[in-house]
Structure formats: C-alpha cells, structure tokens
Amino acid sequence: MPVSSTRSQTLDRGLSVLEIVSSARTPLTVSELAERAGLHRSIVYRLVRTLEDHRLIARDTTDRFGPATGLLSLATHVSHDLTTLSAPALQRLADATGLAALLVIREGGQAATVLVVEPSEPLVPLSHCLGSRHDLDVGAPGHALRSFDAPSPHDHAQVRRARTHGWASSHGEVIDGASCVAAPLAGYRTPAAIAVCFLGQRDLTELSAQVVATAHDISQQLASA
After folding, report:
1. Core-most of 15, 36, 153, 173, by most CB within 10 Å?
2. Residues in domain HTH iclR-type (predicted)?
C-alpha cells in the first residue's frame, strides 16, 4: 500500500516489521520477515537492527528475531499489560509457597525476568533481580519458554515435560544449589512463563501443582482481556 506524503515510509515499514514479529508464534529470520512484510531483505535488515538497538526486538542464537522487553516498557500504561494481570496471582503464589514468584518472557535467546513478587513472609531468602537474564537452554524458566517452539528430537526432557504436563523443573542450572519450577503461560503475544526458585528440598508434586494452577489462572485472564 502506498504511503501518504504526510507519513514516514521508514517508520511505517518499521512498525509493520514490529507488528509481524510481535504476532509471530516463533522468532523469524530476516528472510521470513522480508517475505511477510513484502520488503527487500536489505531494507528489513536495517529495520531490525534499529528495532534491536531500541530493545523492541531481540536476536536469538540462530539469528531469528522475537519481541524484547522494550515492548513491555511501551505497554506500561495499558490496563491489561501482562505484568498488571499477573501480579495478583503471583502474589498469591508467593504467599502460599513462601517463595518469590517470577514472571519471565523470551527475549531473543534468553529468558528475561520482567516481574519479581516477594512473599509476605519468605521462608528462605533467595535473591532475584528484575531484568536478570539467562540462556533459554538452561533453567526451568528457559525450558518452559522453549516449550513454545516446534517439537524437536533434540529437545531437553524438561521442555517435553512442559509441553505435556505444563511445568518444568531444574536444579543448579542457573544458580548453584537452587532449584526452580516453571510453567508456560498461554495467550500472550510472546512466549512467557512463571516460576518459583528455592534452596533445599521441596515437594515437587505439590509445588508444581501450585505453579501450574497459577499459570492457568493468569492464562485465563489473558484470554479474556
């Protein structure tokens, strides 16, 4: 469609690429973006570099692009933002378990923590940093986020568990001595998951049920938002 003389063609193209990335189920290559946008690869490459610089999209280890945490910053005033919807349910989970509840999204090839909700009475303090990141191939949050990808024979066992049972677990993969349980969230525009992490021993059957129930609650709210 021709762009009006009163509009910026570059901005129009950039926003089109951003919309394609945001609505895609999985990260896309430059070639895939160019095909969907109807633009030349060289144009799309320049656009994604700019969007990447502004943390609106992120590149993973296979040179595919997905939404980044900068999109959440732009959405802070939207009433049905993911963090706003998730916070009450995560607070209930944190208080019920005595563990900090985390909201994590996929940013390129990493799992990025975008919300940390502390329990009213923490059982065992374990520091969590807002904005912290780790590789998608390690840790329960990463495995839960990987479950959104197309199945592969090389998938980690916990990625397969997240797909079939709705949760994944890990021990010592991100923080030495720390275990995590995570569950993917359905219904959001980019892969997202919630998690709790702990030191020592916990009943994984009980804890995973609590995490999965919370994820289901948030997913239902996202679907109706």
Report:
1. 173
2. 8-67
9-68 is classed in which CATH architecture? Orthogonal Bundle (1.10)
For β-strands 168-171 and 133-135, DSSP reports them as unpaired
**Predicted confidence band of residue 27 (pLDDT cuts 50, 70, 90):** confident
Decide if pLDDT at 190 tops 70.
Answer: yes
Q: Indicate the angle between helix axes 41-53 and 9-23, nearest 10 degrees.
A: 80
pLDDT tens by residue, 162-189 = 999 999 999 999 888 899 999 999 988 7
- Looking only at the bridges linking them, the beta strands covering 110-117 and 101-107 are antiparallel
Tokens of 53: 């610089």
Confidence of residue 5 (pLDDT cuts 50, 70, 90): low
If 0-12 CB within 10 Å is exposed, 13-18 middle and 19+ buried, where does residue 150 land? exposed
- The confidence score (pLDDT) of residue 159 equals 97
Nearest to 182 by CA among 130, 131, 154, 218: 218
Q: Burial of 58 by CB count in 10 Å (0-12 exposed, 13-18 middle, 19+ buried)?
A: buried
